[in-house]
Design goal:
The complex is a heterodimer of chains A (117) and B (111). Chain A is an all-beta fold and 117 residues long. Helix content of chain A is 0%, strand content 54%. Chain A contains no helices and 11 strands. Chain A has strands at residues 3-7, 10-12, 18-25, 34-39, 45-51, 58-60, 68-73, 78-83, 92-100, 103-107, 111-115. In chain A, strands 2, 4, 5, 6, 9, 10 and 11 form a 7-stranded mixed β-sheet that branches. Chain A has a 4-stranded antiparallel β-sheet with strand order 1-3-8-7, with no helix packed on it. The radius of gyration of chain A is 13 Å and the shape is globular. The N and C termini of chain A lie far apart (40 Å). The relative contact order of chain A is 0.31. The mean pLDDT of chain A is 97. With 111 residues, chain B is an all-beta fold. Chain B has no helices and 9 strands. In chain B, the strands form 2 sheets. In chain B, strands 1, 3, 4, 7, 8 and 9 form a 6-stranded mixed β-sheet that branches. Chain B has a 3-stranded antiparallel β-sheet with strand order 2-6-5, with no helix packed on it. In chain B, β3 (35-40) and β4 (47-50) form a beta hairpin. The termini of chain B are far apart. The mean pLDDT of chain B is 95. The chains are: A mainly beta (117), B mainly beta (111).
């Protein structure tokens, strides 16, 4: 059974940093691209970033480019999102998702990030 | 880069069919057959319902179908059931600087 479990969310002040983690199981993690997608409270979904199997290619939404960094550790079956220079508008539930060809076929339950003073 | 455009809400009665739209541009919906649809219940993670415009993942009811014409993708749910009441999001690959776009979501109400 595919499982994606996010962690690392919490309350952080504007300008602060946070690192999210996603533990994957039930599939060959190293063989698939992975994504982060977020959802602000009461709002729609927004793709944040994705990363190739070997970490050699990474892509970001314009809204987070230069502030967020996606990475992975295939030995630990883990995906990460380093978030710096956080803003109030980054407040959201952050989901880890498995990329299967040109879609996200499995999603975790999410971890909540709140940026507030 | 603008998100894809979805109606805020649609509604239908049990047993009826409904169709919701997802409007993009030639740089996303119209240019690629990489449109997906997701179902989301309050407080839950999204669930993939349709991928590559019209393909259903294993386990998804055949009542759900997808199509595309030009820059507009559509999700049709036939034989509407109370359990279908949820938010639905479309997504597409984009040749723009943000590679993956989502629509703003459509709230489906089963009357």
């Amino acid at each position: 059974e595919v499982q994606l479990v996010e962690s690392g969310g919490g309350l952080v002040q504007p300008g602060g940093s946070l690192r999210l983690s996603c533990a994957a199981s039930g599939f060959t993690f190293s063989s698939l691209w992975m994504s982060w997608v977020r959802q602000a409270p009461g709002k729609g979904l927004e793709w944040v970033a994705n990363i190739k199997q070997d970490g050699g290619e990474k892509y970001y939404a314009d809204s987070v480019k230069g502030r967020f960094t996606i990475s992975r550790d295939n030995a630990k079956n883990s995906l990460y999102l380093q978030m710096n220079s956080l803003r109030a508008e980054d407040t959201a539930m952050y989901y880890c998702a498995r990329d299967q060809a040109f879609t996200r076929d499995y999603w975790g339950r999410g971890t909540l990030v709140t940026v507030s003073s | 880069q603008s998100a894809l455009t979805q109606p805020a809400s649609v509604s239908g009665s049990p047993g009826q069919s409904i169709t919701m739209s997802c409007i993009g541009t030639s740089r996303d919906v119209g240019g690629y057959n990489y449109v997906s649809w997701y179902q989301q219940f309050p407080g839950k993670a999204p669930k993939l319902m349709i991928y590559d415009v019209s393909n259903r993942p294993s386990g998804v009811s055949s009542r759900f179908s997808g199509s595309k014409s030009g820059n507009t993708a559509s999700l049709t749910i036939s034989g509407l059931q109370a359990e279908d009441e949820a938010d639905y999001y479309c997504s597409s690959y984009s040749s723009g600087s943000t590679h993956w776009l989502f629509g703003g979501g459509t709230k489906l109400t089963v009357l």
